[in-house]
DNA sequence: CAGCGAACGTTATACGTAACACTTGCTCGA
DNA sequence: TCGAGCAAGTGTTACGTATAACGTTCGCTG
């Protein structure tokens, strides 16, 4: 956008090159083949770089009615997971001449009157994590093309969805723990209403229902080390037999659980096997390293962007969930 | 931006309300006091909400030559530090009717032809971390008002700077370790060329030069757990007396160092005291909890945004560095 | 030599908004 | 009685761009 001293416009370039503004637009828009001669085109390009011309994107957007910019709505950026999702989405976008702008639903900022008042400056579409669902009504109001990440394929009001195969990840975790001999499970669940967490709870319950002689308890905590610490500490202090396996909804919760285990004078994995989900850097920073489910966040972002491009072009988006894989490290072992 | 079936414009609203487009603009722009009657204003507002009218921001931006949107340029979002900076900046921005858009210099995406081709859709100014300096030339080319975060106040080409008092943090770390009795120091430095890291090295060297009988070695690593692990492992395996204190450029490096210490069969803090810098969630997730320097990332973002607003309004930005504080936890103790 | 495409441009227009410059009717004070 | 002043609007314009529609000049073919 302009400074105090206004920037050169395409008309200024035209004047400098001795051509019409339309010719400038043609040359700089790379639509001049067969319409403008090579020498003239060169003159235009030289004049443009001479003046330091930058097209006014607001004007371009207005004219074209499209911006080649999409919005990625994510929950507060407190883990690197969504940073990687962004990276993947941005790469695919760049390959198609699109840009990606990030909208972290601002924690503590309080919902702006209209969360998109400014970011929506110019958007062709939106990719939104189901964890930032509160912003969704505003988006739907805008009727923008929408792709949901990790969201219920049924309940998404017809929006395209791109999902990680979380259920399969939980299945692998469960089978791993069962095969080690665990029978008494504790589920440390995130207390955020989001489809991605519902899937974890449902799959875990289903699998254990199929395994005779198992039992499952569930506790909830906000996704933070502090929250997980408190919830786990309370659960460990509860009367009755201690569970031998703790399945956490994500790695951060697992890190909090580690602290609770230490405080209780117990050890991971000897007294309690712990699993996470995400495979963030955190998973290998803690001791022992965490057995967790590896999610390919970058691929997730790439897939999300490709789906949005498909929607924009009226094509059907790719189907099928993205595969995940169990990474076995030192935080799980056979129960004593 | 518009869907296939075009969105209603202010003219459509005007027609529905039986007034002119100008009146709609006045009412919705809240500039109607004394120009439009209360009942008419109400009719306009009702028609607008009836039709689901949303102003076309591209048109507004073009008309006004300003967007009330600023760009926050950060290095790859691999820690929560910049997430908090964003939160602070976004809060202040919202209070002034501005929006903030994030531009994480995309790791592995490769510099777009013009890094701002799309994000710059409409920007009034830029806040940039000195750690993302590669993008800077492009910004300067745009001549946008600029505020630099953690950057050399001298060498910033006249751009306003907002700095954390990192030097004071390192001073506090050094005094803490000296008072515990440490004399042999190792500095695990980030191998990124950025002013904020130069300050750490300089201050540490200066302080130790003033303390008789001390020695200092420096090793470098990329900011990742893996990188820090490798560099520290090599240093610990080197011949000669082992240092007793390891000063890390940030918490993530410290987490990597922990792993190297464990692999060497040593323990923190008994065999080696370790300090970090940032006070991320990671600092309390690892065991023992990390003695580190607390940076108020949110305040940093707030200050940055306020500085940019000042520049935009032609006022001089606030001076003075933001204070930081040492947080002593379990990773430091007296040398044996 | 009529006529017909290329080649090389130009002119004109619209995108949707905000704001300036007007108009019209009324009230009110001198 | 008359004009100043105000309320309550409307008409028009410009922001900078991309493109559809329109000329003009050639060279060439039949």
UniProtKB/TrEMBL annotation, chains A, B:
Coiled coil start-end: none
Family matches, as InterPro entries: HTH_LacI, LacI/GalR-like_sensor, Lambda_DNA-bd_dom_sf, Peripla_BP_I
Recorded GO MF terms: DNA-binding transcription factor activity; transcription cis-regulatory region binding
- Taken from the record, one Pfam family name reads Peripla_BP_3
Note whether Transcription regulation occurs among the keywords: yes
SUPFAM superfamilies given for it? lambda repressor-like DNA-binding domains, Periplasmic binding protein-like I
Which CDD domains does the UniProt entry name for this protein? HTH_LacI, PBP1_LacI_sugar_binding-like
Fetch the PROSITE patterns from UniProt. HTH_LACI_2
Does DNA-binding appear among the keywords? yes
Q: Which UniProt keywords apply?
A: DNA-binding, Transcription, Transcription regulation
Occurrences of domain HTH lacI-type (ranges): 8-64
PANTHER family noted in UniProt: LACI-RELATED TRANSCRIPTIONAL REPRESSOR, TRANSCRIPTIONAL REGULATORY PROTEIN
Name by which UniProt lists this protein: LacI family transcriptional regulator
Q: Please tell me the species this chain comes from.
A: Streptomyces coelicoflavus
């Amino acid at each position: 956008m302009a400074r105090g001293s206004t920037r050169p416009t395409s008309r200024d370039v035209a004047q400098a090159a001795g051509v019409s503004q339309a010719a400038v637009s043609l040359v700089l828009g790379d639509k001049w083949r067969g319409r403008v001669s090579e020498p003239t085109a060169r003159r235009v390009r030289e004049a443009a770089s001479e003046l330091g011309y930058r097209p006014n994107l607001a004007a371009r957007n207005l004219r074209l009615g499209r911006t080649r910019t999409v919005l990625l709505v994510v929950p507060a950026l407190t883990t690197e997971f969504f940073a990687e999702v962004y990276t993947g989405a941005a790469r695919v976008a760049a390959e198609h001449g699109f840009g990606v702008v990030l909208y972290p639903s601002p924690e503590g900022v309080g919902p702006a009157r209209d969360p998109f008042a400014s970011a929506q400056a110019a958007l062709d579409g939106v990719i939104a994590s189901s964890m930032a669902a509160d912003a969704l009504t505003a988006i739907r109001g805008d009727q923008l093309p929408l792709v949901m990440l990790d969201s219920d394929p049924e309940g998404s009001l017809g929006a395209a969805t791109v999902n990680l195969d979380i259920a399969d990840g939980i299945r692998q975790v469960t089978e791993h723990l069962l095969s080690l001999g665990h029978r008494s499970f504790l589920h440390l669940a995130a207390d955020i209403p989001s489809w991605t967490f519902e899937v974890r709870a449902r799959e875990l319950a289903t699998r254990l229902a199929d395994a005779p002689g198992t039992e499952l308890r569930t506790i909830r905590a906000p996704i933070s080390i502090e929250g997980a610490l408190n919830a786990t500490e309370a659960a460990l202090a509860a009367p009755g037999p201690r569970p031998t396996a703790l399945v956490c909804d994500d790695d951060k919760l697992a890190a909090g659980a580690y602290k609770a285990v230490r405080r209780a004078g117990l050890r991971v994995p000897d007294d309690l096997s712990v699993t996470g989900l995400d495979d963030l850097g955190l998973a290998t920073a803690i001791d022992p390293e965490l057995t967790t489910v590896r999610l390919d966040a970058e691929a997730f972002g790439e897939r999300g962007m490709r789906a949005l491009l498909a929607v924009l072009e009226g094509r059907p988006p790719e189907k099928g969930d993205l595969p995940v894989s169990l990474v076995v490290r030192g935080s799980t072992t056979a129960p004593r």
